[in-house]
Amino acid sequence: MKVGKNGAVGLYDRLRYGVGPSLDKEAAQQSREDFKQRLKDSKDNLSHFFTIPKAERLRSKIHDLAGDTDTPVQQRFEMRESRRLERLERKEQRQKEMSEFERFREEKQKGTKLSFQNILKNRLAVRGLKREFRKERLKDMNPADDLFRKGNN
Question: Which of 26, 27, 70, 78 is the most buried (most CB within 10 A)?
Answer without folding.
Answer: 27
